[in-house]
Task: inverse folding
């Protein structure tokens, strides 16, 4: 999730999640690399427990979270009990998930013909022959396996929650329990979670209130190797040719002996990768009115997370053939606590009312991990590490960070018409250099409720009008815990050990003056309600400037370090946000509401160290003047149709360079190869012939929701759209490259041959001597889409039907997710991003796990 | 009332308690997995640890764990690219793009090792509680490793930046420019001379006096300083090493008697040779193989040469403790893809015989050259060459062939063909700019003083 675009280059762009006042740890804690599909610590929160989610977008609102608010703040408040009769409710659904789309692979025969053609095109012997194969050849295979059909499945999903709440005028409670179970759409994968919640509030006296919020959960993920990995499930299903059968005649898994890629069904079913997550998030508070209008609140919150990961790869899987079985048992703990104390003073004097808040908080997070890795197993039947003979790794680690904050806020309003809010926060973080631990984060905002003025009272047209303006500074410290230090590290991972002796090695170059990244934002807005609020319109304009970006910048490799974290670079995000909600029909039996929102954000990197650009991911490029998420590469000119064209280019190359054997592109360029443009016009194709060829930043994005109600029936549907962004489809660079043994997609049927010259797909060429598959605009695609993200059709049963069953309420519904997608994007899913945690390498699709289409049937009962 | 005042008290205690604890302690935790650079070299353990870490960097798959040596076989005609990495394919077709990931990683790893060496050379003189002999040896080891890394850098890239001081701050002093190859060679020689005088005679897996002299021989050979090349080689030949009884024992056992400098690998610090070269059925990823069509190693062996079956599987080779055989045509010098315990013979005695033979042949000492050459040939089960049957030219050709098969997959072939001026004719390279690799493009971008090699 990203709030208002990207606000940092290399520090995290994830917003801060605060659950009942506890800032929680999100992100992945996994130590087992299964590609870029991480676990998400946020998935431990039960959606049914959530009463409200408030997204603080602009800096004047987020400033009270100061230091950590640069990416926005998401406040999650869970449901609490209310006094009165005890209520019990049940919420549940069951459903099924499946793929949205599958790609079109070549048939087995086509795949083998293509490989032979690619090889003979560069002077190599064909790989598949009809008779008398050499040791480097195989007989033609008659197999034709659609690997995607073998690994994808229709998968179950179900969720059941029971909630009980109630209380009297002294105490209120809510307890809930939930069970969630989801199979993955890839065979062998799944996730289930059980969680409980207890929220209590008690009035000690009419001036003192105490309470607790507590949730505990236990989750089990059955994971898969994924993404950029020759042992991944989706990656192998796309990149193993269809000429390989699933099984050999003897029932063992078949492999392509010319390819390092694992059999996808073996990849899905042989390894066992499980992650058990135990999580507790809790908060206790006491709130006392010391004097009239003066309240003291103190709270202590905690977030405890333990992720235990076990992996076993049997010796029958390619990944562990050589090591005779491979196992890991890892455990990672993150224990965080926060203590927050605030004094609030509320006072009204005639038309003036104000609230003053002073506070202080201290926060600490300690992470510990244990990693073990063993190979050489006695048998594939015992998966515990004690069954392995070779101890490859046994290590532990510990790291921590702290944050100390002081803050104040003043709210003032006059007659409810003129509203002012000012706040100031000072944060100190352990992550920064000695001189720059602390940062100041001020904010101020004003609002004028014009609609309350006399001249708009009783106006038939305008029911609400509010003008707003604000300015705020927020910070970002999402960098390594000791990023400012010059460090020597230990262990095989740092290449510090040799010949069974442990050593030390320089691991990090630091800068002492590393300090806070600060984002200044100006926001102006207007809220307008028309015709008794049947039409509500909100507009916001913001200009946010991030200074001293915390940037992992590249160093010259000759320094011995690849990069360093530094405050280098500035960036600007400007945007407009519109929200329009209209009650189209508002009658007794029928209601229809439409809500539309869109945002238009322009992002630009405005300063970098020495203004030197740098690359990231596969094709991304960070450059002053360009937006974050830009792509850079070569530009396709055309396909060479004849040797004469190539000779002509080479002749110019020789004249221009003065080298007798210089070539425009490659000595092995042949008709059917791509001619890339010589952008710098120096006669040869070189590294300088690359330019910006697209950007992952959309021109606009948003959504439209329609809610219709007729008596007890209700229909909701939500379309989401993104427009004007590009995707670098690296999956196609592999699946349409025609450069080797990888399975290829149907698009290559139109490849260049001497009889099919009118095409933009080059010839097949083993080893790609011309670099046809290099990073170029050939793999850039329009990523715009409109998607019917969710739709729900529900029916609330009439009271007279359910009363005999002692039901307070009963509702049944059918719902779906990702039901329709309109896009020109050729990949599995336009919403994917391979490097989902990185700000610099956005918009790349490389063998990434797609989202599923979900259909579900649900029931809500209240007793 | 009672409870309420207790709560007040608790709340106020919380407020005061936290504000009164020392903020500087709370905000200044020390790292628990690392130490500061300033304390790394303060004692003997730190100094010794840093030298272990120096060798540790060499074990990377981007360094002597695979890429640095093996690309000298892949770029030449000893290995074909049989796998799926486009970056390996670019190297095999000898048309790498400047952003080639393999070259980038290799360059990065070599300079990272050099920075570790520079730290040792700069800081250990100030370490206290350490004898002069130990201090000298540790610095000498760093000088040797630095010399080896610069030798590899200049072999692949020609003129390279010569960085001799540790990196301490990320400022514009990092904008180094390239130094002519001859000066790089001079620095290598200076480091090796210094190292030779302080290193011990034996130290398994680490630099010794002998490894320094042996590398001086190879350096002199590359510089066509024939007298030096022969003298240093003969000095090592007269040293404590003996040829292993069989070629297989020389290349496939740990630390045989002819090993002069051997990079040690074990299950915790693994090499990647077998994994990258063995077929998937044996647990490798089959990225490179001498059995492909663009490798001619198999045909380079004379009839009766025992090195052929010791280097390339005839289809019967079996990995100890595993079922199944390694298919015909695949290399078997490295044969532990699962736990990567194959060591790398960086310098061994057979090379010294071949250095001596070549240097002597170049100086018209045909009998002397034949004595050295025939030691290697007869160990491989081949007949000795006779002076009556050779000319200087045919002898040099025979030595080239001998080096190819004796030192196959040990990182020599590409460099040997280039230093003798034979690469273009043997490998059919028309564009001479392809004899040097492109400087990684990110260096050009991140360093205004770094210039690209011609043709890229």
Result:
């Amino acid at each position: 999730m990203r709030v208002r675009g990207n606000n940092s280059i290399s520090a995290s762009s994830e917003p801060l999640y605060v659950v009942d006042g506890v800032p929680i740890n999100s992100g992945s804690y996994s130590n087992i690399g299964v590609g870029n599909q991480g676990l998400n610590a946020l998935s431990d929160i039960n959606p049914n427990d959530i009463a409200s989610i408030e997204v603080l977008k602009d800096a004047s609102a987020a400033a009270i979270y100061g230091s950590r608010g640069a990416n926005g703040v998401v406040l999650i408040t869970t449901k609490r009990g209310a006094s009165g009769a005890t209520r019990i409710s049940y919420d549940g659904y069951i459903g099924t998930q499946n793929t949205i789309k599958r790609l079109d692979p070549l048939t087995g025969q086509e795949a083998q013909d293509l490989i032979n053609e690619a090889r003979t095109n560069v002077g190599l012997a064909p790989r598949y022959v009809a008779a008398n194969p050499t040791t480097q050849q195989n007989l033609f295979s008659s197999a034709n396996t659609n690997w995607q059909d073998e690994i994808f499945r229709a998968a179950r999903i179900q969720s059941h929650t029971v909630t009980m709440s109630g209380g009297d005028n002294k105490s209120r409670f809510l307890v809930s329990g939930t069970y969630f179970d989801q199979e993955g759409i890839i065979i062998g994968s799944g996730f289930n979670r059980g969680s409980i919640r207890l929220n209590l509030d008690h009035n000690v006296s009419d001036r003192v209130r105490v309470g607790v919020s507590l949730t505990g959960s236990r989750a089990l993920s059955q994971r898969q190797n994924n993404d950029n990995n020759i042992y991944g499930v989706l990656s192998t299903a796309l990149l193993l040719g269809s000429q390989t059968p699933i099984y050999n005649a003897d029932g063992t898994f078949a492999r392509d002996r010319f390819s390092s890629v694992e059999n996808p069904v073996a990849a899905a079913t042989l390894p066992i990768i499980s992650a058990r997550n135990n999580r507790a998030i809790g908060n206790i508070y006491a709130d006392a009115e010391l004097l009239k209008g003066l309240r003291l609140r103190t709270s202590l919150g905690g977030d405890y997370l333990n992720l235990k990961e076990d992996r076993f790869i049997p010796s029958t899987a390619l990944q562990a053939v050589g090591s005779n079985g491979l196992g890991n048992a890892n455990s990672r703990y993150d224990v965080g606590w926060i203590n927050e104390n605030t004094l609030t003073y509320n006072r009204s004097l005639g038309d003036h009312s104000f609230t003053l808040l002073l506070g202080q908080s201290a926060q600490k997070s300690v992470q510990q991990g244990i990693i073990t890795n063993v190979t050489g197993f006695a048998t594939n039947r015992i998966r515990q590490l004690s069954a392995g003979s070779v101890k490859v790794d046994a290590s532990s680690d510990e790291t921590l960070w702290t944050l100390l904050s002081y803050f104040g806020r003043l709210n003032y309003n006059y007659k409810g018409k003129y509203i002012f809010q000012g706040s100031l926060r000072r944060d100190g973080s352990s992550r920064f250099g000695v001189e720059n631990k602390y940062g100041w984060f001020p904010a101020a905002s004003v609002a004028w409720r014009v609609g309350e003025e006399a001249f708009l009272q009783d106006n038939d047209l305008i029911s609400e009008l509010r003008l707003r303006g604000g300015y705020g500074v927020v910070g970002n410290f999402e960098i390594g815990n000791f990023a400012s230090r010059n460090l020597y590290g230990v262990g095989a991972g740092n290449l510090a050990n040799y010949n069974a002796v442990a050593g030390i090695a320089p691991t990090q170059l630091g800068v002492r003056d590393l300090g806070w990244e600060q984002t200044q934002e100006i926001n102006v807005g207007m809220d307008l309600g028309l015709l008794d609020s049947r039409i509500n319109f909100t507009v916001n304009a913001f200009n946010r400037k991030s200074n001293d970006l915390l940037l992992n910048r590249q160093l010259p490799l000759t320094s011995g370090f690849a990069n360093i974290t530094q405050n280098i670079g500035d960036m600007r995000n400007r945007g407009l946000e519109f929200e329009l909600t209209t009650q189209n029909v508002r009658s007794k039996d029928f209601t229809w509401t439409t809500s539309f929102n869109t945002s238009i954000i322009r992002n630009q990197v405005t300063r970098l160290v020495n203004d030197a650009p740098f690359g990231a991911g596969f094709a991304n490029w960070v450059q002053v003047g360009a937006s974050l998420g830009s792509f850079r590469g070569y530009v396709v000119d055309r396909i060479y149709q004849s040797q004469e064209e190539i000779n002509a280019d080479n002749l110019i190359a020789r004249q221009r360079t003065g080298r007798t054997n210089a070539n425009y592109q490659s000595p092995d360029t042949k008709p059917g190869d791509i001619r890339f443009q010589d952008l710098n016009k120096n006669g040869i194709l070189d590294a300088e012939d690359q330019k910006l060829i697209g950007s992952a930043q959309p021109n606009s994005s948003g959504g439209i929701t329609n809610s219709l109600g007729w008596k007890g029936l209700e229909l909701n549907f939500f379309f989401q759209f993104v427009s004007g962004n590009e995707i670098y489809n690296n999956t196609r660079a592999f699946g349409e490259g025609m450069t080797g043994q990888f399975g290829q997609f149907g698009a290559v049927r139109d490849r260049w041959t001497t009889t099919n010259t009118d095409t933009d797909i080059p010839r097949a060429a083993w080893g790609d001597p011309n670099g046809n598959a290099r990073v170029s605009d050939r793999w850039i695609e329009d990523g715009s889409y409109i998607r019917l993200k969710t739709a729900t059709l529900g029916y609330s049963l009439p009271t007279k039907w359910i009363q005999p069953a002692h039901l307070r309420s009963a509702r049944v519904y059918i719902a779906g997710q990702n039901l329709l997608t309109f896009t020109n994007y050729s990949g599995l899913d336009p919403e994917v991003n391979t490097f989902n945690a990185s700000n610099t390498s956005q918009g790349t699709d490389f063998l990434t796990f797609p989202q599923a289409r979900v259909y579900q049937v649900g029931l809500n009962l209240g007793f | 009332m009672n409870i309420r005042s207790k709560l007040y008290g608790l709340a106020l205690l919380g407020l005061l308690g936290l504000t009164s604890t020392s903020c500087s302690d709370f905000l200044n935790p020390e790292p628990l997995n690392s130490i500061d650079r300033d304390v790394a070299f303060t004692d003997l353990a730190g100094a010794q640890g840093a030298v272990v870490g120096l060798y540790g960097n060499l074990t990377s798959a981007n360094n002597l764990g695979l890429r640095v040596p093996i690309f000298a076989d892949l770029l030449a005609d000893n290995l074909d690219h049989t796998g799926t990495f486009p970056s390996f394919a670019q190297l095999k077709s000898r048309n790498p793009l400047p952003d080639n990931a393999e070259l980038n990683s290799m360059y990065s790893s070599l300079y990272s090792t050099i920075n570790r060496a520079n730290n040792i050379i700069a800081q250990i003189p100030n370490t206290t509680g350490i004898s002069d002999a130990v201090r000298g040896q540790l610095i000498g080891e760093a000088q040797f490793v630095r010399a080896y890394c610069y030798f590899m850098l200049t072999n692949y890239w020609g003129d390279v930046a010569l960085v001799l001081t540790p990196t301490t701050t990320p400022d514009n002093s990092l904008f180094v420019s390239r130094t002519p190859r001859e000066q790089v060679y001079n620095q290598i020689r200076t480091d090796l001379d210094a190292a030779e005088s302080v290193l011990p005679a034996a130290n398994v897996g680490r630099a010794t006096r002998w490894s320094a002299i042996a590398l001086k021989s190879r350096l002199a050979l590359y510089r066509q300083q024939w007298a030096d090349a022969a003298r240093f080689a003969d000095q090592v030949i007269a040293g404590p090493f003996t040829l292993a009884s069989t070629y297989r024992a020389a290349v496939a056992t740990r630390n045989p008697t002819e090993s002069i400098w051997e990079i040690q690998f074990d299950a915790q610090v693994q090499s990647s040779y077998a994994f990258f070269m063995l077929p998937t059925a044996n647990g490798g990823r089959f990225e490179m193989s001498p059995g492909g069509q663009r490798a001619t190693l198999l045909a380079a062996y004379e009839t009766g040469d025992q090195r052929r079956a010791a280097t390339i599987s005839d289809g019967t080779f079996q990995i100890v403790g595993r079922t199944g055989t390694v298919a015909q045509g695949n290399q078997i010098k490295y044969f532990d893809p699962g736990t990567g315990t194959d060591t790398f013979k960086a310098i061994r005695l057979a090379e010294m015989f071949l250095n001596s033979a070549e240097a002597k042949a170049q100086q018209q000492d045909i009998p002397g050259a034949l004595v050295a050459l025939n030691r290697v040939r007869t160990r491989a089960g081949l007949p000795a060459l006779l002076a009556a049957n050779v000319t200087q030219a045919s002898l040099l050709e025979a030595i080239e062939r001998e080096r190819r098969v004796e030192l196959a997959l040990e990182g020599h072939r590409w460099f040997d063909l280039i230093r003798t001026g034979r690469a273009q004719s043997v490998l059919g390279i028309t564009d001479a700019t392809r004899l040097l690799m492109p400087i990684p493009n990110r260096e050009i971008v991140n360093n205004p003083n770094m210039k690209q090699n011609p043709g890229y």
Q: What stands out?
A: Residues 5-11, 34-39 of chain A have pLDDT under 50 and may be disordered. The CA atoms of residues 467 and 482 of chain A lie 44 Å apart. The first helix of chain A runs from residue 59 to 62.
